[in-house]
TrEMBL record:
The lineage of its organism: Eukaryota, Viridiplantae, Streptophyta, Embryophyta, Tracheophyta. Pfam families: GUB_WAK_bind, PK_Tyr_Ser-Thr, WAK_assoc. Residues 658-667 have a biased composition (Polar residues). SUPFAM superfamilies: Protein kinase-like (PK-like). This is non-specific serine/threonine protein kinase. It catalyses: L-seryl-[protein] + ATP = O-phospho-L-seryl-[protein] + ADP + H(+); L-threonyl-[protein] + ATP = O-phospho-L-threonyl-[protein] + ADP + H(+). Its EC number is 2.7.11.1. The keyword Transmembrane helix applies. Its main location: membrane. ATP binds at residue 372. It is found in: Cell membrane. It comes from Aquilegia coerulea (Rocky mountain columbine). The chain crosses the membrane at residues 268-291. Residues 344-625 form the Protein kinase domain. It is a single-pass type I membrane protein.
Length: 667
């Protein structure tokens, strides 16, 4: 054997020794760590009386494998747990009943708590206890029901405009009020509360709604119930590792229970010996093939070694761009955006949304931007922040607002940076501070409808539901071209399901009425909201106006009412030339027909967004106008809907005309 062959063989032997040593170390470490895991998962006290053990675990005290990932408790001043992204105080844990008593911290800290969110357990490993009930809280309603008990919420009542806020248990007598709440009240949330068995609703009227909220509510869990009982009975401690239950024992982890075999040491020794024998045989095979291939691949191996060395050297250098993007979105510092908005000057406010205030700003590179500052009191601000970034970072469309960047989610404040769209919102131009008779002509409005539908059809094709389609979220540039904005409520829609169950959210006047009944979201929910937008473009009226007749507070109801009474002309903005211009009259009638289809109560009767877009484009084209011209009778005596049936999509394909009476000029 020459020197080169000897060196190669020596190299192979050394490789075997290194591998064997590493494997032995790992085996020893695994044996020791098993006992360490058992010790690490010892039950601990949080506060004076709260005993914390599986499936719960104390963050920063327990290892994460000592409990279920969704059962982490922060134990600082007060034990807290997060359920569906909302923090609750932990009052008590009953491991026998598999239940935890939680309470909203606002209920304890405020003499007049005003919950702003509903709790949803769709994605949480909990279910409500058997004795829970929903306390519904209605904000700023036009009236107070008299046929069941209500609790006053004085701090949320707007006395200046005769509005009332109250709480109530909507049992068998009051369930109908839920369906009317969107018309009578500005908003509504439901808060779960615990009611002891045998307690009547009448007895609870002596308590204030705040006292009821302070009682909290029970959550039951079913995570690894049986397995954990078996594990603890055998002397083990329950854990959760790699999304599977595991029983940590004094010797080593088991799948369900600790072994009772007294001769376990002998079995472990045999197992180790067998394992090492297998390792030895494997390594000898490795040496044989390594010897044969070493000479052939010497040059390639040397090149690879150099390449790896260069990569290692490069990785050790500080990277100035590290952490500069999030979901491929550029990261801005809080200081930079604070400076860009002149310290969030109130004079630079562009608008106030449901989740934050938007400011006009100018970056150091000269770009003019809109900066959204999420409200600090919004419990779901982090979820909405990440949701909007995750969605906008994957979308590119000429009619969707562009996200320039954001702050880090651990920043002092959560800020989102968008392109600045200078011409306000569609709502501003229709019935807001930019409304100017004659400025927003019907051709411009039709273009706005087409571009908005194009953006929504693109979202639906990308399996995304907007969930908050409204004229306040449709921005306009100086050429009156559309930029759809505000994706804080948007949801990614799985391709293999027909709907997604969610907590009730959205804007009154635009929310799908079927959504209030079953809280199931689908793409036709956006179609309903867009139908309201179409009616706004036709009428210049807001989606909700408490100054209108109580049956027409919602614009959708008003539109259906006018259509059924053959009075489309009363709905149309008189500035559009509906009575004097045949083309305007025919296209408005066709758009109203489309809106009527979008506003159907049953989602199956509504068109999809692609069909809506194609119909609007057809209405705009001369060929479509000509095709439909014979279907539209513009005589003064023709009826709007021939043989119309309430809420039937077939009825709107009949001839539509308006009466020759003076149009309503009110907004």
């Amino acid at each position: 054997m020459n020197n080169n062959m000897f060196n190669e063989f020596f190299f192979s032997i050394m490789t075997f020794k290194v591998i064997a040593i590493i494997i032995l170390v790992l085996l020893v470490e695994t044996t020791l760590s098993a006992n360490q895991q058992y010790e690490a998962c010892e039950p601990r006290q949080c506060g004076d009386s709260l005993n914390v053990r599986f499936p719960f675990w104390i963050q920063n005290q327990h290892q994460s494998y000592c409990g279920h990932p969704n059962f982490g408790i922060t134990c600082e001043e007060t034990p807290m747990i997060q359920v569906s992204n909302v923090d609750y105080i932990v009052r008590n844990i009953s491991y026998e009943a598999h239940s935890v008593l939680v309470v909203d911290p606002d209920a304890l800290e405020d003499s007049c708590p005003t919950p702003l969110h509903n709790i949803s357990l769709n994605d949480a490993p909990f279910e409500f206890g058997p004795s829970y009930a929903n306390l519904y809280i209605f904000y700023n309603c036009t009236s107070i029901p008299t046929d069941y008990y209500t609790y006053s919420v004085p701090c949320a009542t707007n006395a200046s405009n005769s509005r009332h806020s109250f709480a109530a248990f909507l049992h068998h007598m009051g369930l109908g009020y839920l369906n009317a709440s969107s018309q009578n009240c500005q908003s509504m949330v439901n808060a779960p509360v615990e009611i002891e068995e045998g307690t009547s609703y009448e007895n609870m009227i002596s308590m204030s709604y705040a006292d009821i909220l302070r009682e909290g509510f029970l959550l039951n869990w079913g995570v690894a119930r049986n397995n954990c009982t078996i594990c603890e009975t055998s002397g083990g401690r329950c854990g959760f590792d790699r999304n599977e239950f595991i029983c940590f024992c004094p010797d080593h982890p088991h799948s369900r229970s600790c072994s009772q075999d007294p001769d376990i040491r002998k079995k472990v020794t045999i197992g180790l010996a067998t394992g090492l024998s297998g390792i030895f045989v494997t390594c000898m095979v490795f040496i044989f093939f390594a010897y044969r291939r070493h000479k052939r691949n010497k040059l390639a191996a040397s090149t690879g070694l150099i390449s790896r060395s260069m990569s290692l050297d490069s990785s050790l250098k500080p990277d100035p761009e590290k952490g500069s993007t999030y979901f491929q979105t550029p990261i801005f510092t809080y200081k930079e955006l604070h400076e860009a908005t002149n310290h969030f000057d109130s004079n630079k406010e562009l608008g106030d949304g449901g989740f934050g205030t938007v400011y006009h700003g100018k970056l150091r590179d000269g770009r003019v931007v809109a900066v959204k500052r999420l409200f600090e009191h919004n419990y779901k601000r982090v979820e909405q922040f990440m949701n909007e970034i995750a969605i906008l970072s994957r979308l590119r469309h000429r009619n969707l607002v562009t996200l320039y960047g954001c702050t880090n989610r651990h920043s002092r404040e959560l800020l989102l940076v968008y392109e600045y769209v200078p011409n306000g919102t569609v709502a501003d131009h229709l019935h807001g501070n930019r409304a100017d008779a004659g400025l927003l002509t019907w051709p411009i409005r039709l273009t706005i409808a087409i571009e908005s539908a194009d953006a929504l059809a693109y979202l639906h094709a990308s399996d995304i539901i907007h969930r908050d389609v409204k004229t306040n979220n449709i921005l306009l540039d100086n050429g009156f071209h559309v930029k759809v904005a505000d994706f804080g409520l948007s949801r990614l829609f799985p391709t293999d399901v027909t709907h997604v169950s969610t907590a009730p959210q959205g804007t009154p006047g635009y929310v799908d009425p079927e959504y209030y009944q079953c809280y199931q979201l689908n793409d036709r929910s956006d179609v309903y909201s867009f139908g309201v937008v179409l009616i706004e473009l036709i009428s210049s009226k807001p989606a909700v106006d408490i100054g209108r007749h109580r049956h027409e507070i919602n614009l959708a109801n008003m539109a259906i009412n006018r259509i059924h009474n053959q009075a489309l002309h009363e709905l149309v903005d008189p500035c559009l030339g509906f009575e004097s211009d045949y083309t305007v009259r025919s296209t408005i009638t066709l758009v109203a027909e489309l809106a009527f289809r979008c506003l159907q109560q049953e989602k199956e009767m509504r068109p999809c967004m692609v069909e809506v877009l194609e119909t609007l484009r057809g209405i705009e084209s001369e060929e479509y106008k000509k095709k439909k011209a014979d279907e539209i009778d513009i005589s003064a005596d023709a009826r709007l809907l021939k043989n119309s049936q309430p809420l039937s999509p077939d009825s709107v394909t009949d001839k539509w005309v308006s009466k020759s009476t003076t149009p309503n000029t009110s907004n």
